[in-house]
Amino acid sequence: MIRSLIYSITFHSVLVLLTILSLPFMLREPIDLPPIVSVELIQITDKTSIPYAPKARKIIEETKKKEVERLVSEQAPPAAKAKEKPDRIPLPNEKKEEKKIVKKKQNPEEIKPEIRQASEFEKKDIVDTNQIAALIDKAKEEEAVKQKKEDKITQSSQKNSFATGLTLSQEDALRAQIFGCWSVPLGLPYDEDLLVRIKLQLKKDGTIMRSEILDHQRMNRPGQKFYKVLAESALRAVRLCQPLKVPPTGYDKWKDLQLNFNPAEMLKG
Amino acid sequence: MKKFFLIFVLNIFFINKSFALIEIDITRGNLDPLPIAVSPLHVDIKSENFDDLKIKDLGENISKIIENNFRGTGLFNPLKKEAFVQKPDIAHLKPRFEDWRLIKAQALVTGKLLIIDGKLKVEFRLWDLAAAKEMTALAFTTTPSNWRRVAHIISDKIYERLTGEEGYFDTRIIYVAESGPKNERIKKLAIMDQDGASTKYLTLGNELVLTPRFNPNNQMVTYMSYFRNMPRVYLLDIETGTQEVVGNFPGMTFAPRFSPDGKKIVMSFAKDGNSDIYTMDLDSRVVERITDHSSIDTSPSFSPDGKFIAFNSDRSGLQQIYVMRSDGSGVKRITFGNGIYGTPVWSPRGDLIAFTKMRKGRFYIGVMRTDGSGERLLTENYYQEAPSWSPNGRVLVFYRETKSGLKGEGFSAKLWSIDITGYNERRLQTETDASDPSWSSLLSK
Fold first, then answer.
1. How far is A115 from chain B (nearest CA, A)?
2. Among A6, A114, B83, B232, which has the highest number of CB atoms less than 10 A from its own CB?
3. What is the DSSP string of B226-273?
4. Helix A152-164 to helix A168-181 angle, to the nearest 10 degrees?
5. Contact A179 B131 (CB under 8 A)
């Protein structure tokens, strides 16, 4: 009993998870948020790493301040060499002073991590970092301006392309082409249920490899004469229209198309 | 556990795959009539002569009738024959679809005929040119003199195949043929094919006749006649020409119409300034009073299922349309608009009622739902009335009077038809002036 309950809960959780992950409206909603800028920035950080840029600037300033000390420390090794003189026996006082001097020496092994990091920057790198940081700032500004300029159509086209694999203009071109080819059977009565769905498999040049009326069984059912007439007219339209105006790229996205023919609006008027 | 994981992964894969399908909604299309090519029917060389029939021209003539029928619907555009690229006999065997598509045709009609042993054999095929396949094919055998009907029957079959609706070409229209000046008008009963051909006059014009109506099998006609100056409802057998008075009413009877089963006639009976609706059973001759009101109740029309009657009455002060059960109970007013409503006629489909409306001196033909909602006025004119439905409930025929002469002293009455969408208004060709049309049901049914 408990075991089956566990199975049930697990399986249902998986189903819920699947639903959340895969339902199209769940996928589409976040696109309304403006995440475009952050996506762009991520691409730039691959080169320059934004979070480190201010830190790098700070470090560079510190490095400049300690430049003098660094020069001293660079002179330290010869002093160490003096210490190594074997022919001279130092006095006790001198030994103390020497020790002090040694303490002041900048031993590479004792150098603080910050300084070590700073020393890893070459002058060229430092300059580049500033420039890139400035570029990032500029890019940010440009992106902000762009974002202001971008109207809803662009955003919806991105949403559309996300949902369908065709941009809005590509979809409109295709739709307009089929509008022209479809002779709507004008004698049909207004009926909300008159929707014909045709699944197409296209070649790269837009010609039709295969066409199939989904729910084609309905055509031969008694009392479905109007549906049959509509379905035939829709098929006729698609065949007359070929080659369809498809984009030159992204064949994998549009090689399978579904056209939903719904004359309700036209028949209403 | 591994299996669960596998199923999980497969699920994700397939679900994502299914959402990858691009869907495009097509909600608009081309409203032009469907381009159709009607190839002349091929006349078989074995055909024998028959009476005065010009055999050679028969195939051409049949195709012309089909074309005219299609053009009249407003739904099809028959293409000019000059552009045809294939001979009728070859086209009938196997059309070269790509050649026909070149002239922008979407459908093609081909056929052949043969007259042998005094019989006309006709076959035809309808081709879907885009799909490059045959849509329907039929053959008929009849007497050669019926060749016009054959053309209408072919038209009906093609119309039905391409629109999903029954056709209305193999039908007749009965009407009142009018001639002479207005004060000495001669009115005769006349019958013709729906395309205006084969007109026959059923009465001599010695007495005034009005409102002829077909019975469901188109063999009988009921109408009102002023025979011996007694306005009464008559019954006429079209084949034999015999006439009889309907019922023995001590007064004027008018506005008759058959019940959908053809067994009863519903009409108005007027006496002492009051008029009510009555029915008479044609077998038992039993008369039944349906309405009993001090107002003028007239123009009754049965619903196609025979359960209801629509009529007009002035019981509310102005003439309006009412609906009641066929036994007279449950009377309900359905028109409330401005103006006067009359001549309600129930559609053969049962979904609409056609009517005449008068408002501010103008006459309108309109349709509305059977509860009175969705009123649509299809056409407006100086004077027009008496709508009658085509058997498929798609077209209305009515008559319109127009003033003629520079000073409007004369007038002319003609039959007109209009689609229930309000488009495709056309004048029907009649030999004389015409009024009170009534459309028959399909003759070949």
1. 51
2. B232
3. -GGG--EEEEEETTT--EEE-S--SSEEEEEEE-TTSSEEEEEEEETT
4. 70
5. no
* CA-based nearest residue to B65, from B2, B158, B132, B127: B158
- pLDDT for B358-396, tens place per residue? 999 999 999 999 999 999 999 999 999 999 999 999 999
Cross-strand bridge partners of residue B21:
none
The DSSP element (H or E) to which B128 belongs, if any, is: strand B119-128
Specify whether B217 is located in the same domain as B279. Answer: yes
Last residue in a domain, options A127, A148, A169 = A148
If asked whether residues B251 and B150 sit together in one domain, one would say no
Spell out the long-range contacts of B246-255 with Cβ–Cβ below 8 A and sequence spacing 24 or more.
Answer: B246/B222, B246/B280, B247/B278, B247/B280, B247/B285, B247/B287, B249/B278, B249/B287, B253/B224, B253/B278, B254/B210, B254/B211, B254/B224, B254/B298, B255/B211, B255/B224, B255/B298, B255/B299, B255/B300
- Do B366 and B381 meet the contact criterion of CB atoms below 8 Å apart? no
Residues in CB range of B207: below 8 A, 6 or more apart: B225, B226, B227, B228
* Structure token digits, residue B369: 């739902």
Q: Which pLDDT band holds residue A131 (cuts at 50, 70, 90)?
A: low
B29 reaches A (C-beta below 8 A) = yes
What's the CATH code of the domain at A248?
3.30.1150
Last residue of a domain, one of B131, B163, B195: B163
Shared domain for B343 and B423, answered yes or no, is yes
Average pLDDT over residues B167-192: 92
Chain A contact for B74 (CB, 8 A cutoff)? yes
Burial class (CB in 10 A: 0-12, 13-18, 19+), B404: exposed
User: What confidence score (pLDDT) does residue A24 get?
Assistant: 61
Q: Across all residues in chain B, what is the average pLDDT? A: 90
- Here the CATH number for the domain that contains residue B122 is 3.40.50.10070
Cβ atoms B267, B253 nearer than 8 A: yes
Q: Is A249 within 8 Å of B16 (Cβ atoms)?
A: no
CB B169 within 8 A of CB B194: yes
Q: Which residues of A touch B15 (CB under 8 A)?
A: 18, 22
CA pair distance B95, A150, nearest whole angstrom: 55
Comparing A44 with B270, which gets the higher pLDDT? B270
- Interface pTM (ipTM) of the complex? 0.77
Domain membership flag for residue A27: no
Q: Given CB atoms, is A126 within the 8 Å cutoff of chain B? A: no
Q: Does A182 touch chain B (CB under 8 A)?
A: yes
Residue A43 within any structural domain of the chain: no
How many Å apart are CA B140 and CA B153, to the nearest integer?
Answer: 9
Q: Which of residues 92-111 of B touch A (CB under 8 A)?
A: 101, 106
pLDDT score of B326 more than 90: yes
A186/B21 CB distance under 8 A: no
DSSP for residue B195: T
B5: contact with A, CB 8 A cutoff: no
Task: Identify from B6, B22, B97 which residue to disrupt to test chain A contact, counting A C-beta atoms within 10 A and taking the largest count.
Answer: B22
Domain span including residue B134: 34-163
Which residues on A lie below 8 Å from B128 (Cβ)? Answer: 232, 236
